[in-house]
Design brief:
Shape: globular
Helix content: 40-55%
Mean pLDDT: 86
Radius of gyration: 17 Å
Low-confidence stretches: none
Distance between the termini: 32 Å
CATH class of the largest domain: Alpha Beta
Largest sheet: 6 strands, parallel
CATH superfamily of the largest domain: Response regulator
Strand content: 5-15%
CATH topology of the largest domain: Rossmann fold
Length: about 210
């Protein structure tokens, strides 16, 4: 077997992290050394796990954001690769990450294959900055509809799934759609039943794997 790649994940969205862990743990090549909720915690974990090869780093985090964290990583842990994992496809932000020292930048709605491939390429010394301009909500709904048609999701359920994909909380979705949080929670349960999923982390894993 090829030499394993030791990873750390830094992201403050617990459900997204759980889905990511499920995907990465299924790859024999990957070993997850640690999970951090913010930049400061990540830097501490790196002192405890010096054999870490690559970090999947979110842009927006409390206490110390991703862009500032990169600079500290490159100063103190220069051999560690950094792959930004973000919900934002703004090209100015991508360029800021590159200038700060990131080795790659991939979107959170990328497919499982794209994520695994990006990790392997960055670990191998390549730079991966393949970010396309963000599609409008209407175009994303169209793409989701093609795939989700067989699951018989309602228009509202697809809308909520779209915002879950953007890592919004139930409360944030409720405010955006002018619904009660109870209604959003009910829709989420219905989505889980229709997709035959048994946990929020499995839902995140489903969205990542099928790129919806």
């Amino acid at each position: 077997m090829s030499q394993q790649i030791h990873l750390m994940i830094a992201d403050d969205h617990p459900l997204f992290v759980e889905g990511l862990k499920m995907i990465l743990s299924s790859e024999p090549l990957f070993v997850i050394n640690g999970i951090a909720n913010d930049g400061k915690q990540l830097l501490y974990l790196l002192t405890q796990q010096p054999q870490t090869d690559l970090i999947l780093l979110d842009v927006n985090m409390p206490h110390l954001n991703g862009l500032d964290t990169i600079k500290y990583i490159k100063q103190s842990f220069g051999s560690v690769k950094v792959l930004m994992l973000s919900a934002y496809s703004d090209h100015k932000l991508v360029e800021e990450a590159r200038v700060a020292g990131a080795d790659g930048y991939i979107l959170k709605n990328s497919s499982r294959e794209a994520l695994v491939g990006a990790i392997k390429r960055v670990h191998g010394g390549l730079q991966v900055f393949e970010v396309e301009p963000a599609n409008g909500q209407e175009e994303l709904f169209r793409k989701m509809d093609v795939f989700l048609r067989k699951y018989d999701l309602t228009k509202r359920e697809k809308e909520i799934l779209y915002y879950l994909k953007q890592t919004l909380t139930n409360q944030q979705i409720a405010e955006k759609l002018h619904l009660s949080i109870y209604t959003v929670e009910t829709h989420r349960k219905n989505i889980m039943q229709k997709l035959q999923l048994n946990s929020p982390a499995a839902l995140v894993k489903f969205m990542i794997e099928f790129n919806i």
